[in-house]
Amino acid sequence: MGDVLPALSIPALVLASGMYAVAATWWRRRHPAPPSPYTHQAARLAERAMLVDAERIVDEAYGTLGGLYDGQPAPAHRAAARSSHQVGAAS
Fold this sequence. Notes:
The protein is mainly alpha-helical. The protein is built from three helices and no strands. It has two domains: 1-33; 36-67. It has helices at 4-30, 40-69, 75-90. It starts with a helix and ends with a helix. The mean pLDDT is 80.
């Protein structure tokens, strides 16, 4: 009688592991894992989100600093006038 328990434990273990595999497969089919962050779709979504953030930053910066660039003469004209005046004075 002492050999019956170890002899029956092996088939019981095989049966239990098989039932676990079936249950795990059934569970995974009905509850799929969330998409991996390393897929091409995730990369495209991250790129699109980054582009939206960059556009927002540029729009905010232009809204804040846009008045500095509207209708003001370029400082290069004054610098060019000074340099030509200095060259003429040295001659």
